[in-house]
């Protein structure tokens, strides 16, 4: 019989935090081992299951990462950049797998994951779904096949509570398109057009962000040429999709060498 893996969840009261907790409770090879929230949060000291409006789980929500990670083999973290950097240090200290879904991290913040990743497994992806990760491969392929006569535009739509733009997924798709073209995304990225912007620069990769209602997450990669357009599209209609990907990553990371990995590694899709 396989041993059940203890999972800690940070930002456990959040949209993704609660979804993750429900998926862990329902998973046959996992159990909840910790729930972490920010100091001063209402849920601190409460049973996690009861705080979510359900039955008791025996896991008491804490604001102390070391305490929340003590009985876990992996922590799943969908919070905010500053919090994620601190959780990475605490996860490495505890010697557990850190699955990071947090988006909006700067290049400098991402570089700060190097030290903890030298001691423990980190799996990080702006999107944990199979569909989006497959779409990055298709995007790279189409971008490599077409020249700059085709303008690449990435359009993303999310709910009205999302705080970062472009989305982590849009940036993954932009990176894939840039890689296909053999250019650095930072050199060709064009986001936040407003006012007299001038004509589109040949070779740029454009980003547009829509925010509204309860949209879970939708992404189009458009290749716009003369007289024709190719559009690659992914639509997420249920957040459990991301949670299930994160659980898969937590299991995959067990017993791996320390290092930084992504969902292509987890899904066996990396080159
Ligand atoms: N990779 C993927 O597949 C996906 C990634 N995401 C990303 O996950 C992140 C969270 O999204 P979502 O669940 O919708 O957001 P929510 O705002 O609903 O949840 C975030 C949670 O993290 C907590 N948190 C924020 N800052 C800190 C901190 N400094 N210390 C401790 N806890 C903190 C929040 O607490 P408080 O409310 O007190 O601020 C909240 O409980 C975003 O970056 C989002 O883009 C989302 C879906 C899929
Ligand atoms: O904040 C969200 O909700 C989502 N964030 C991720 C992103 O930034 O791409 C993934 C998904 O699209 C939902």
From TrEMBL:
UniProt cross-references to InterPro entries, sorted A to Z: DapB_C, DapB_N, DapB_N_CS, DHDPR_bac, NAD(P)-bd_dom_sf
Gene Ontology cellular-component annotations: cytoplasm
EC code(s) of this entry: 1.17.1.8
Record localization: Cytoplasm
Residues that coordinate or bind NADP(+): 38
Molecular functions (GO terms): 4-hydroxy-tetrahydrodipicolinate reductase; NAD binding; NADP binding; oxidoreductase activity, acting on CH or CH2 groups, NAD or NADP as acceptor
Residue ranges annotated for the Dihydrodipicolinate reductase N-terminal domain, each copy included: 6-128
Sequence positions that bind NAD(+): 11-16, 37, 101-103, 125-128
SUPFAM superfamilies: Glyceraldehyde-3-phosphate dehydrogenase-like, C-terminal domain (SSF55347), NAD(P)-binding Rossmann-fold domains (SSF51735)
Residue ranges of every copy of the Dihydrodipicolinate reductase C-terminal domain listed in the record: 131-267
Family assignment from sequence similarity: Belongs to the DapB family.
Annotated protein name in UniProt: 4-hydroxy-tetrahydrodipicolinate reductase
Species this chain originates from: Sulfitobacter donghicola DSW-25 = KCTC 12864 = JCM 14565
């Amino acid at each position: 019989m396989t041993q059940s893996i203890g999972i800690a969840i940070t930002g456990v009261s959040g949209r993704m935090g609660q979804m993750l907790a429900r998926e862990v409770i329902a998973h046959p090879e996992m159990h909840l081992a910790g729930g972490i929230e920010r100091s001063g949060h209402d849920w601190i000291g409460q049973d996690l299951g009861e705080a979510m409006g359900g039955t008791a789980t025996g896991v008491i929500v804490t604001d102390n990462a070391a305490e929340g990670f003590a009985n876990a083999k992996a922590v799943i973290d969908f919070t905010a950049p500053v919090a994620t950097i601190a959780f990475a240090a605490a996860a490495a200290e505890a010697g557990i797998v850190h699955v990071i879904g947090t988006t909006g991290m700067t290049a400098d913040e991402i570089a700060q994951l190097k030290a903890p990743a030298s001691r423990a497994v980190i799996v990080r992806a702006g999107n944990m779904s199979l569909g989006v990760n497959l779409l990055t491969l298709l995007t790279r392929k189409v971008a490599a096949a077409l020249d700059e006569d085709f303008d690449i535009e990435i359009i993303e739509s999310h709910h009205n509570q999302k705080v970062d733009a472009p989305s982590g997924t849009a940036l993954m798709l932009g990176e894939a398109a840039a890689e296909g073209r053999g250019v650095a995304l930072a050199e060709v990225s064009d986001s936040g057009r407003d006012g007299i912007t001038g004509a589109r620069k040949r070779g740029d990769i454009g980003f547009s962000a829509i925010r509204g209602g309860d949209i879970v997450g939708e992404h189009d990669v458009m290749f716009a040429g003369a007289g024709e357009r190719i559009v690659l599209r992914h639509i997420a209609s249920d957040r459990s999709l991301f949670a299930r990907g994160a659980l898969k990553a937590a299991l995959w990371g067990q017993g791996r060498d320390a290092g930084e990995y992504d969902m292509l590694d987890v899904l066996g899709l990396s080159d």
